[in-house]
Amino acid sequence: MAYIIKNGMVEHNGVFLEAEHLFKLGRISANSDGVEVGLVISKRPAQIHFKFETEPAPNFVLFFRGKPLDKEQTHSLVKYGYFISDGKRVHFVSSRINEHLAIAFGDLPLPKLMRLLRSLHLEALIDEFPAHLIEMLRDNQKKQAHHEKLFVQSLYPYQEEGVNWLSFCAENGVGTILADDMGLGKTAQVIALCCDVLEKNPNSKILIVVPNPLLDNWVREFQFFAPSIVPYLHYGKHRRGVASAFDEHNVVVTPYTTMSSDITMFEDMYFDLALFDEASMLKNPKSSRSLSARRLNVGVTVAMSGTPVENSLMDAWALTDLVFEGFLGAQDSFKSRYVHSDLSETLNKNLEELESSLRQITLRRMKKDVLEQLPEKLDIHTAVSMGEVEKAQYESLIDEMQRDNQNGGGGILPLINKLQQFTAHPALIDPTIPNDVRSLIKHSAKFELLMIQLDKIVQAGEKVIIFATFQKAIDLIQGAIRERYGILPGVIDGRTPNDERQPLIDTFSSSKGFDVLLLHPRTAGMGLNITAATNVIHYCRQWNPALEEQATARAWRNGQKFIVNVYYMYYAGTIEEKIDERIRLKQQLSERVVSVTDDKETDKQIMLEYLETLGL
C-alpha cells in the first residue's frame, strides 16, 4: 500500500482519504486520579489521547483506539509520521503535531505541558485551551503548603487558598502572577510561600526585589509574619557581597536599582525563588531593570501586582513572559494576535482565549469576591525607606537639634516641626527643589510611594482622600496629581471658606471613576461625610490617634457600602516611626480604658518623650 501525504491529506492509490475513512480514534482526554475530561482535535484525521499522572510529574501518553502506543510506535510516529498497528501503517498528517510530540514525548513537567497545550490550541489542533486540565491537577494537590513552623500569624481562608496555589505552582516549576486587589494581603501570602519553600528545603535561597521606598517595610513584614526568618537587606554603599550574605541568610531583599547595578553578581547565583513586588515596574521589557530581571538564574518567579494590565495588553505579556518565558509566545506574534487585530469578533474571541490562558498562571481576587471574609476597614501600615541622600539630610537636621540643645537654645520644638516638614517632603524646607513630579519623586521616597499607590487607585477607578498636615505639602501633592493624572484635586484646609467645602465634597462624590480630595486633618477631619471614597491615605502622621481616627471616619462611617483601605505611610527610623508606635500603643490603651482625647498638651508631651530618645 502506498500512502502519500499532500497538503495535510492522505492519498492512497491515487484517492484522497477523508479523515473518518482513514481511521477513527477516541477523544483527547485527561485522566487524573480517575477523573477523565475529554477534548477533541478539530478536523484532523488523527487524534491524540492524553493521560496525565501527577506523580512524580504529569506524564504524556499516546493512545490509538483506546490502546497506548508503545515506545517503538511513539518513536516511529515522531520520526516518520506514522506507526504500525495490527500490521498496518497509521499516519499523522500534521507535521506540526509531530513537532509537538517530539517535545512532549516522555515525562512532561507541568510548564512544558502548559506550553504544549497552548501551542496546540493556537494552531487550531484542539478546539479550546484545556484550562480544566491544569485546574484538575491543582485540585489533586491541594493543601500541600507547609508554613506552620515559620509563619506565626493567621491567614484568611482566601489567603490560605492563595498560598496553596502558589505552593503548587512553585512545586511544579511554574512561574506565577499574584494579582489580588489592593488590600488583600499579597505580602502575607508570599511570605507564607517563602516559609513553605524553606520548610521543605531549609537551604533554599530566595530573592525579593522591591521599590526603594519599601525596603524597610519588607523587613518589618518578615518580623511580623515570620520572625525567625531574618532577611539580608542588600542596599546602599556599604552592602556586602550577596554570596557571603547568603551564608547567614536565606532571604535577600534588594531594590530594583541595586538589582540592576549589581546584576553581574546576582546572575552568578542560583535562586530557588524570586519575588518581584510592584512588578508593574517591569512592564517595559526593554527597560534596564526588566532586562536585568531576565538575567537572573531563578527556579521559580512570582510577580506581585494589583494592576497587571495598566495601559496595554502588552503589560500582561511582559509580566507573563517574565515569570513563564514563552507561555504567550513571542512579543510580535502576541501583538498581532491580541493588540493589532482589526476584526472585533476575532479580537473578542482572541481575548477570551488569552484570558483563559492567563488564568492558569495568574491569581486575582477582588474584594467583592471575598467580602464575607474581610473586615469593613483594612489598615495598611507601610514603613518607608529613605534614600541615602534623604537620610543624610535628615541626620543633619538631628545634628542641628543636638547642637542647639548643647548651646542652650530654646528652639527644640520648632526643630521638631522642621523634622516633620522634612518627612512630608524636603521641598518644604528647601525651596530650591523643583515642583515637577519627577523632581518631587527624586527627592522623597515617601512621595514616590504615594505616587505608586495612586497609580493603583487610578487603575482600580476608585476615589481617595489624602490627609496632610502642612499646606505646602497639600499644594505639592495637588500639583503633582494634576501633572501626572490630568485632574485638579479639591482641597479643604484652613484656606478654604466654609461655604465652599460642601460643594467640593459634592463634586468629588458625584464624579465618575478616579478622583482625589486633599484634606487637612484638623480642618476637615471632623463632621464631613465622604463615603464616596474607598481609600484613605494618611500622608502626614498625627501625634494623637484621635485625629487620625476622626479623619478616617470621613470615609469609614455609616452609609459606606464598601471596604475602606486606610494607608498609613511613615519613614522607618525617624520621628514618623516614633509617632506610629505611640499611636498604636495609645489605641491599645484606649480600647482597654478610655477614649483618647484630642489634646495639644498630650501632643506636646509625646514630642518631649521623643526628644529624650534622641538624648536631648
TrEMBL record:
E.C. numbers: 3.6.4.-
Stored InterPro entries: Helicase_ATP-bd (IPR014001), Helicase_C-like (IPR001650), P-loop_NTPase (IPR027417), SNF2-like_sf (IPR038718), SNF2/RAD54-like_C (IPR049730), SNF2_N (IPR000330)
Q: Where is the Helicase ATP-binding domain?
A: 167-326
Judging by the UniProt lineage, the source's domain of life is Bacteria
Name the Gene Ontology molecular function terms of this record: ATP binding; helicase activity; hydrolase activity
What keywords are assigned to this protein?
A: ATP-binding, Helicase, Hydrolase, Nucleotide-binding
Which class of enzymes does this protein belong to? hydrolase
Alphabetical list of Pfam families matching this protein = Helicase_C, SNF2-rel_dom
Location of the Helicase C-terminal domain: 453-605
- The protein in question is named DEAD/DEAH box helicase
What is the organism of origin for this protein?
Answer: Vibrio splendidus
